[in-house]
């Protein structure tokens, strides 16, 4: 990492809580919409962990959905 990248990273720290809260809202929206989709499951938050919500992994049950994970990502 060069000095410019480090300086930019330090400036972004002012906004980290805002960014995490926005991603948390998006994750809640995904959970609400995916909750009724049979064959799609997602990971619940662990209360002892401070999540960054950078990713929202899902598990796809091919037998229940009729589609495998790889084919789902192509669509």
Describe this structure as you would to a colleague.
The protein has 75 residues and is mainly alpha-helical. The protein has helices at 3-12, 16-34, 62-65, 69-74; strands at 40-42, 58-60. The chain has a two-stranded antiparallel sheet with strand order 1-2. The radius of gyration is 17 Å and the shape is elongated. 0% of the residues are buried.
Which features would summarize this protein structure in a list?
single chain, 75 residues, mainly alpha, Aspartate Aminotransferase, domain 1, two-stranded antiparallel ribbon, 4 helices, 2 strands
C-alpha Rg (nearest Å): 17 Å
Output the CATH class name.
Answer: Alpha Beta
The number of E-state strands comes to 2
Order of helices and strands: HHEEHH
Helix/strand class: mainly alpha
CATH structural architecture: Alpha-Beta Complex
Work out the helicity level.
Answer: 40-55%
Mean pLDDT: 94
Which parts are unreliable, with pLDDT below 50 for 5 consecutive residues or more? none
Can you tell me the CATH topology? Aspartate Aminotransferase, domain 1
Query: What is the CA–CA distance across the termini?
Result: 36 Å
CATH superfamily: Aspartate Aminotransferase, domain 1
Number of domains: 1
What percent of residues are in strands?
Answer: 5-15%
Quaternary structure state of the chains depicted: single chain
Strand order of the largest sheet: 1-2
The largest sheet is: 2 strands, antiparallel
Number of helices: 4
